[in-house]
Amino acid sequence: MILLRVTIFFLLLLLLPDWYIYKTYLKPLGRKSWNRLWWTPTVLLLATLAAFLIGGEALHSYLGVYLVTVICISVPKAFFALLAWPVRLLQKRFTSSPIEIPGLCIPSLLLFGYLLFGAIKGKEHFQVREVTFSSPDLPEAFDGYRILQISDLHVGSWKGNATAMQRAIDLCNAQQADLAVFTGDLVNSRASEMEEFIPALSQLHAKDGVYSVLGNHDYATYVKWNSEAERLANIDTLIARQNGMGWQMLMNEHVNLYRGNDSIALVGVENSGNPPFPNKGDLPKAMKGTEGMFKVLLSHDPTHWRREVLPKTDIQLMLAGHTHDMQFRIFGFSASRFFYPEHNGLYQEGNRGLYVNIGLGYVLFPMRLGAWPEITVLTLRKE
After folding, report:
1. pTM of this prediction?
2. How many Å apart are CA 378 and CA 144, to the nearest integer?
3. Where are the domains of the chain?
4. β partners of residue 210
5. What pLDDT digit, counting tens, does each position of 232-274 carry?
6. What is the DSSP letter of 324?
7. CATH code of domain 127-382
8. Neighbours of 280 (CB within 10 A)
9. How far apart are CA 97 and CA 207, in angstroms?
Protein backbone atom coordinates (compact mmCIF):
# COMPACT_ATOMS: atom_id res chain seq x y z
CA MET A 1 0.00 0.00 0.00
CA ILE A 2 2.84 2.41 0.87
CA LEU A 3 4.62 1.59 -2.39
CA LEU A 4 1.37 2.23 -4.30
CA ARG A 5 0.92 5.64 -2.65
CA VAL A 6 4.52 6.62 -3.36
CA THR A 7 4.14 5.51 -6.99
CA ILE A 8 0.96 7.55 -7.43
CA PHE A 9 2.65 10.60 -5.88
CA PHE A 10 5.61 10.35 -8.27
CA LEU A 11 3.36 9.86 -11.27
CA LEU A 12 1.48 13.05 -10.38
CA LEU A 13 4.70 14.96 -9.65
CA LEU A 14 6.24 13.92 -12.95
CA LEU A 15 3.21 14.21 -15.23
CA LEU A 16 1.00 17.09 -14.06
CA PRO A 17 3.55 19.95 -14.32
CA ASP A 18 4.84 18.66 -17.67
CA TRP A 19 1.33 18.34 -19.05
CA TYR A 20 0.37 21.89 -17.94
CA ILE A 21 3.55 23.50 -19.34
CA TYR A 22 3.24 21.52 -22.58
CA LYS A 23 -0.43 22.38 -23.09
CA THR A 24 -0.02 26.05 -22.16
CA TYR A 25 3.33 27.04 -23.65
CA LEU A 26 4.75 24.40 -26.00
CA LYS A 27 1.81 22.95 -27.94
CA PRO A 28 0.71 26.35 -29.32
CA LEU A 29 4.18 26.72 -30.89
CA GLY A 30 3.53 23.68 -33.08
CA ARG A 31 7.13 22.46 -33.06
CA LYS A 32 7.05 18.66 -32.74
CA SER A 33 10.81 18.32 -32.19
CA TRP A 34 10.57 20.62 -29.13
CA ASN A 35 7.61 18.62 -27.83
CA ARG A 36 9.53 15.34 -28.05
CA LEU A 37 12.54 16.90 -26.34
CA TRP A 38 10.33 18.26 -23.54
CA TRP A 39 8.86 14.87 -22.67
CA THR A 40 12.15 12.92 -22.85
CA PRO A 41 13.33 13.47 -19.22
CA THR A 42 9.91 12.54 -17.82
CA VAL A 43 9.69 9.40 -19.97
CA LEU A 44 13.16 8.33 -18.79
CA LEU A 45 12.27 8.96 -15.13
CA LEU A 46 9.02 7.00 -15.49
CA ALA A 47 10.89 4.12 -17.11
CA THR A 48 13.36 4.16 -14.22
CA LEU A 49 10.48 4.15 -11.74
CA ALA A 50 9.09 1.06 -13.46
CA ALA A 51 12.52 -0.58 -13.22
CA PHE A 52 12.58 0.05 -9.45
CA LEU A 53 9.11 -1.44 -9.06
CA ILE A 54 10.14 -4.55 -11.00
CA GLY A 55 13.71 -4.89 -9.72
CA GLY A 56 12.87 -4.45 -6.04
CA GLU A 57 15.73 -4.82 -3.55
CA ALA A 58 18.31 -5.48 -6.29
CA LEU A 59 18.19 -1.78 -7.27
CA HIS A 60 17.70 -0.41 -3.75
CA SER A 61 21.19 1.13 -3.53
CA TYR A 62 20.36 3.43 -6.46
CA LEU A 63 17.00 4.59 -5.12
CA GLY A 64 18.41 7.62 -3.29
CA VAL A 65 20.05 9.03 -6.41
CA TYR A 66 16.81 8.50 -8.33
CA LEU A 67 14.74 10.33 -5.70
CA VAL A 68 17.12 13.30 -5.69
CA THR A 69 17.02 13.44 -9.50
CA VAL A 70 13.21 13.45 -9.49
CA ILE A 71 13.13 16.21 -6.88
CA CYS A 72 15.66 18.42 -8.67
CA ILE A 73 13.90 18.08 -12.06
CA SER A 74 10.22 17.92 -11.15
CA VAL A 75 9.87 20.28 -8.20
CA PRO A 76 11.09 23.42 -10.08
CA LYS A 77 8.69 22.57 -12.95
CA ALA A 78 5.83 22.12 -10.48
CA PHE A 79 6.75 25.45 -8.88
CA PHE A 80 6.74 27.13 -12.31
CA ALA A 81 3.29 25.69 -13.06
CA LEU A 82 1.94 26.86 -9.69
CA LEU A 83 3.25 30.36 -10.41
CA ALA A 84 2.07 30.45 -14.02
CA TRP A 85 -1.51 29.35 -13.43
CA PRO A 86 -2.68 32.31 -11.25
CA VAL A 87 -0.54 34.74 -13.26
CA ARG A 88 -2.29 33.71 -16.48
CA LEU A 89 -5.69 34.08 -14.83
CA LEU A 90 -4.80 37.61 -13.72
CA GLN A 91 -3.40 38.39 -17.16
CA LYS A 92 -6.63 37.42 -18.89
CA ARG A 93 -8.65 39.49 -16.47
CA PHE A 94 -6.63 42.71 -16.27
CA THR A 95 -4.29 42.99 -19.24
CA SER A 96 -3.88 41.92 -22.82
CA SER A 97 -0.06 42.00 -22.76
CA PRO A 98 1.67 38.62 -22.57
CA ILE A 99 3.55 37.52 -19.48
CA GLU A 100 7.18 36.95 -20.33
CA ILE A 101 8.19 33.34 -19.65
CA PRO A 102 11.69 34.34 -18.42
CA GLY A 103 10.07 36.31 -15.61
CA LEU A 104 8.32 33.16 -14.41
CA CYS A 105 11.42 31.03 -14.93
CA ILE A 106 13.68 33.02 -12.61
CA PRO A 107 12.08 31.84 -9.32
CA SER A 108 12.03 28.26 -10.60
CA LEU A 109 15.69 28.41 -11.61
CA LEU A 110 16.58 29.79 -8.18
CA LEU A 111 14.69 26.91 -6.60
CA PHE A 112 16.53 24.46 -8.86
CA GLY A 113 19.86 25.92 -7.72
CA TYR A 114 18.83 25.61 -4.06
CA LEU A 115 17.78 22.00 -4.54
CA LEU A 116 21.04 21.26 -6.35
CA PHE A 117 23.00 22.72 -3.43
CA GLY A 118 21.08 20.46 -1.05
CA ALA A 119 21.93 17.44 -3.19
CA ILE A 120 25.61 18.25 -3.74
CA LYS A 121 26.66 20.09 -0.57
CA GLY A 122 23.73 20.07 1.84
CA LYS A 123 24.42 16.67 3.35
CA GLU A 124 27.91 17.87 4.36
CA HIS A 125 26.87 21.38 5.42
CA PHE A 126 27.60 20.64 9.08
CA GLN A 127 26.13 23.09 11.57
CA VAL A 128 27.01 23.52 15.26
CA ARG A 129 23.98 24.55 17.33
CA GLU A 130 24.57 26.05 20.77
CA VAL A 131 21.73 25.43 23.23
CA THR A 132 21.29 26.21 26.93
CA PHE A 133 19.13 24.21 29.35
CA SER A 134 18.53 25.63 32.83
CA SER A 135 17.24 23.71 35.82
CA PRO A 136 16.95 24.42 39.56
CA ASP A 137 17.80 20.75 40.19
CA LEU A 138 21.25 20.93 38.60
CA PRO A 139 24.10 20.56 41.13
CA GLU A 140 26.23 23.69 41.45
CA ALA A 141 29.39 21.94 40.27
CA PHE A 142 27.73 21.16 36.91
CA ASP A 143 26.78 24.77 36.15
CA GLY A 144 28.27 25.38 32.68
CA TYR A 145 28.70 21.66 31.92
CA ARG A 146 28.80 21.16 28.14
CA ILE A 147 27.31 18.11 26.41
CA LEU A 148 28.04 17.42 22.74
CA GLN A 149 25.26 15.47 21.05
CA ILE A 150 25.28 13.84 17.63
CA SER A 151 22.68 11.47 16.26
CA ASP A 152 21.57 9.44 13.23
CA LEU A 153 24.90 9.06 11.47
CA HIS A 154 23.62 6.30 9.15
CA VAL A 155 27.20 5.54 8.16
CA GLY A 156 26.09 3.19 5.37
CA SER A 157 24.87 6.24 3.46
CA TRP A 158 28.39 7.75 3.60
CA LYS A 159 30.05 4.81 1.80
CA GLY A 160 33.17 6.03 0.01
CA ASN A 161 33.16 9.40 1.79
CA ALA A 162 35.21 8.86 4.94
CA THR A 163 36.76 12.30 4.39
CA ALA A 164 33.45 14.05 5.16
CA MET A 165 33.00 11.89 8.27
CA GLN A 166 36.47 12.87 9.43
CA ARG A 167 35.61 16.56 9.00
CA ALA A 168 32.47 16.08 11.10
CA ILE A 169 34.37 14.34 13.90
CA ASP A 170 37.09 17.02 13.83
CA LEU A 171 34.37 19.66 14.19
CA CYS A 172 32.90 17.74 17.15
CA ASN A 173 36.27 17.53 18.90
CA ALA A 174 36.89 21.23 18.31
CA GLN A 175 33.97 22.00 20.65
CA GLN A 176 35.98 20.64 23.62
CA ALA A 177 32.85 19.38 25.38
CA ASP A 178 32.79 17.79 28.83
CA LEU A 179 30.71 14.86 27.57
CA ALA A 180 29.89 13.44 24.12
CA VAL A 181 26.73 11.41 23.46
CA PHE A 182 25.28 9.64 20.45
CA THR A 183 21.52 9.06 20.36
CA GLY A 184 21.12 6.17 17.95
CA ASP A 185 21.00 5.02 14.30
CA LEU A 186 24.70 4.57 13.74
CA VAL A 187 24.06 2.31 10.74
CA ASN A 188 21.32 1.83 8.18
CA SER A 189 21.12 -1.87 9.02
CA ARG A 190 24.38 -3.83 8.89
CA ALA A 191 27.27 -3.57 11.35
CA SER A 192 29.65 -4.03 8.39
CA GLU A 193 28.78 -0.49 7.27
CA MET A 194 31.00 0.78 10.11
CA GLU A 195 34.29 -0.67 8.90
CA GLU A 196 35.28 2.24 6.67
CA PHE A 197 34.52 4.80 9.38
CA ILE A 198 35.91 3.24 12.56
CA PRO A 199 39.23 5.16 12.29
CA ALA A 200 37.38 8.50 12.25
CA LEU A 201 34.67 7.61 14.77
CA SER A 202 37.26 6.28 17.22
CA GLN A 203 38.72 9.79 17.42
CA LEU A 204 35.59 11.30 18.96
CA HIS A 205 36.44 12.23 22.54
CA ALA A 206 35.34 14.31 25.52
CA LYS A 207 36.61 14.80 29.07
CA ASP A 208 34.02 12.47 30.61
CA GLY A 209 33.87 10.04 27.71
CA VAL A 210 31.56 9.10 24.83
CA TYR A 211 28.25 7.31 25.44
CA SER A 212 25.81 5.81 22.96
CA VAL A 213 22.39 4.17 22.66
CA LEU A 214 20.68 2.18 19.92
CA GLY A 215 18.16 3.59 17.43
CA ASN A 216 15.52 1.81 15.37
CA HIS A 217 17.86 1.21 12.38
CA ASP A 218 20.45 -0.42 14.63
CA TYR A 219 18.12 -3.38 15.16
CA ALA A 220 18.56 -4.29 11.47
CA THR A 221 14.90 -4.92 10.70
CA TYR A 222 14.98 -3.17 7.30
CA VAL A 223 16.86 -5.92 5.46
CA LYS A 224 16.30 -9.64 5.02
CA TRP A 225 18.38 -12.05 7.09
CA ASN A 226 18.82 -15.79 6.71
CA SER A 227 17.68 -16.23 10.30
CA GLU A 228 16.75 -14.31 13.44
CA ALA A 229 20.00 -15.49 14.99
CA GLU A 230 21.93 -13.77 12.19
CA ARG A 231 20.11 -10.49 12.82
CA LEU A 232 20.79 -10.66 16.56
CA ALA A 233 24.44 -11.45 15.88
CA ASN A 234 24.57 -8.30 13.75
CA ILE A 235 23.34 -6.24 16.72
CA ASP A 236 25.95 -7.83 18.99
CA THR A 237 28.66 -6.97 16.45
CA LEU A 238 27.43 -3.38 16.25
CA ILE A 239 27.53 -3.01 20.05
CA ALA A 240 30.98 -4.63 20.29
CA ARG A 241 32.39 -2.32 17.62
CA GLN A 242 31.05 0.76 19.35
CA ASN A 243 32.57 -0.33 22.64
CA GLY A 244 35.80 -1.05 20.76
CA MET A 245 35.82 2.54 19.46
CA GLY A 246 35.64 3.83 23.03
CA TRP A 247 31.91 4.59 22.85
CA GLN A 248 30.31 3.13 25.97
CA MET A 249 26.92 1.62 25.14
CA LEU A 250 24.09 2.23 27.61
CA MET A 251 21.65 -0.66 27.31
CA ASN A 252 18.88 0.19 29.77
CA GLU A 253 21.42 1.33 32.33
CA HIS A 254 23.05 4.44 33.71
CA VAL A 255 26.39 5.87 34.77
CA ASN A 256 27.13 8.57 37.31
CA LEU A 257 29.22 11.57 36.31
CA TYR A 258 31.12 13.46 39.01
CA ARG A 259 32.34 16.95 39.66
CA GLY A 260 33.89 17.11 43.11
CA ASN A 261 31.29 15.95 45.60
CA ASP A 262 28.40 16.51 43.15
CA SER A 263 27.10 14.01 40.60
CA ILE A 264 24.47 13.61 37.89
CA ALA A 265 23.14 10.45 36.24
CA LEU A 266 23.43 9.74 32.54
CA VAL A 267 20.67 7.26 31.70
CA GLY A 268 20.51 5.37 28.42
CA VAL A 269 17.75 3.13 27.07
CA GLU A 270 17.33 0.98 24.02
CA ASN A 271 14.97 2.26 21.34
CA SER A 272 11.55 3.04 22.76
CA GLY A 273 9.23 3.80 19.86
CA ASN A 274 5.66 3.43 18.71
CA PRO A 275 4.92 0.61 16.22
CA PRO A 276 6.36 -0.24 13.75
CA PHE A 277 9.55 0.88 15.51
CA PRO A 278 11.23 -1.34 18.14
CA ASN A 279 10.18 -0.83 21.75
CA LYS A 280 13.04 -2.32 23.77
CA GLY A 281 13.53 0.42 26.34
CA ASP A 282 13.31 -0.43 30.05
CA LEU A 283 13.32 2.91 31.82
CA PRO A 284 12.66 1.66 35.39
CA LYS A 285 15.64 -0.71 35.08
CA ALA A 286 17.86 2.02 33.65
CA MET A 287 16.94 4.51 36.39
CA LYS A 288 17.34 2.16 39.34
CA GLY A 289 19.64 3.81 41.88
CA THR A 290 19.26 7.37 40.51
CA GLU A 291 16.61 8.53 42.97
CA GLY A 292 16.98 12.22 43.82
CA MET A 293 19.69 12.83 41.20
CA PHE A 294 19.66 15.22 38.25
CA LYS A 295 19.21 12.93 35.25
CA VAL A 296 19.99 13.23 31.54
CA LEU A 297 18.29 10.54 29.44
CA LEU A 298 19.51 9.30 26.06
CA SER A 299 16.56 7.86 24.13
CA HIS A 300 16.48 7.77 20.34
CA ASP A 301 12.77 8.36 19.68
CA PRO A 302 11.37 11.74 20.84
CA THR A 303 7.85 10.32 21.24
CA HIS A 304 9.20 8.50 24.30
CA TRP A 305 9.19 11.83 26.16
CA ARG A 306 5.42 12.27 26.30
CA ARG A 307 4.61 8.54 26.39
CA GLU A 308 6.65 7.64 29.44
CA VAL A 309 9.31 10.12 30.51
CA LEU A 310 7.07 13.05 31.44
CA PRO A 311 4.18 11.16 33.11
CA LYS A 312 6.15 8.41 34.86
CA THR A 313 9.58 9.81 35.81
CA ASP A 314 11.29 12.87 37.24
CA ILE A 315 13.96 12.99 34.50
CA GLN A 316 14.94 16.61 33.94
CA LEU A 317 16.39 16.40 30.42
CA MET A 318 16.03 13.93 27.56
CA LEU A 319 18.17 13.94 24.41
CA ALA A 320 16.74 12.31 21.26
CA GLY A 321 17.16 12.13 17.48
CA HIS A 322 15.30 10.04 14.89
CA THR A 323 13.26 12.66 12.99
CA HIS A 324 15.99 14.12 10.67
CA ASP A 325 13.41 16.93 10.38
CA MET A 326 12.61 14.95 7.20
CA GLN A 327 15.95 16.31 5.84
CA PHE A 328 13.91 19.22 4.40
CA ARG A 329 13.02 22.52 6.01
CA ILE A 330 11.85 25.41 3.83
CA PHE A 331 11.24 28.86 5.38
CA GLY A 332 11.29 27.21 8.80
CA PHE A 333 8.67 24.61 7.86
CA SER A 334 9.20 20.85 7.87
CA ALA A 335 6.62 18.16 7.21
CA SER A 336 8.06 16.26 10.18
CA ARG A 337 5.77 18.29 12.46
CA PHE A 338 2.83 16.26 11.10
CA PHE A 339 4.44 13.07 12.43
CA TYR A 340 6.33 14.24 15.51
CA PRO A 341 5.02 16.96 17.85
CA GLU A 342 8.62 17.42 18.99
CA HIS A 343 10.80 17.17 15.90
CA ASN A 344 13.62 19.74 16.06
CA GLY A 345 15.30 21.64 18.87
CA LEU A 346 14.49 22.29 22.52
CA TYR A 347 11.04 21.69 24.05
CA GLN A 348 10.14 22.38 27.67
CA GLU A 349 7.37 21.49 30.09
CA GLY A 350 7.95 23.45 33.27
CA ASN A 351 11.53 22.77 34.39
CA ARG A 352 11.84 19.63 32.25
CA GLY A 353 13.18 19.51 28.74
CA LEU A 354 13.61 17.49 25.55
CA TYR A 355 16.17 18.25 22.90
CA VAL A 356 15.72 16.69 19.44
CA ASN A 357 18.87 16.62 17.34
CA ILE A 358 17.97 16.38 13.62
CA GLY A 359 20.89 14.14 12.79
CA LEU A 360 24.35 14.35 11.28
CA GLY A 361 23.74 11.82 8.51
CA TYR A 362 21.03 11.01 6.02
CA VAL A 363 19.01 8.03 4.89
CA LEU A 364 17.09 7.00 1.76
CA PHE A 365 17.92 10.05 -0.37
CA PRO A 366 21.40 11.67 -0.29
CA MET A 367 20.21 15.21 0.32
CA ARG A 368 19.61 17.77 3.06
CA LEU A 369 17.94 21.11 2.48
CA GLY A 370 17.36 23.60 5.28
CA ALA A 371 17.50 20.77 7.83
CA TRP A 372 21.30 20.85 7.78
CA PRO A 373 23.36 18.09 9.47
CA GLU A 374 23.61 19.00 13.14
CA ILE A 375 26.16 18.93 15.93
CA THR A 376 24.61 20.11 19.18
CA VAL A 377 26.49 21.65 22.09
CA LEU A 378 24.13 21.84 25.05
CA THR A 379 25.22 23.83 28.11
CA LEU A 380 23.64 23.03 31.48
CA ARG A 381 22.94 25.97 33.77
CA LYS A 382 21.92 26.16 37.40
CA GLU A 383 18.70 28.15 37.56
Report:
1. 0.88
2. 9
3. 2-120, 127-382
4. 180, 247
5. 999 999 999 999 999 999 999 999 999 999 999 999 999 999 8
6. G
7. 3.60.21.10
8. 15
9. 69
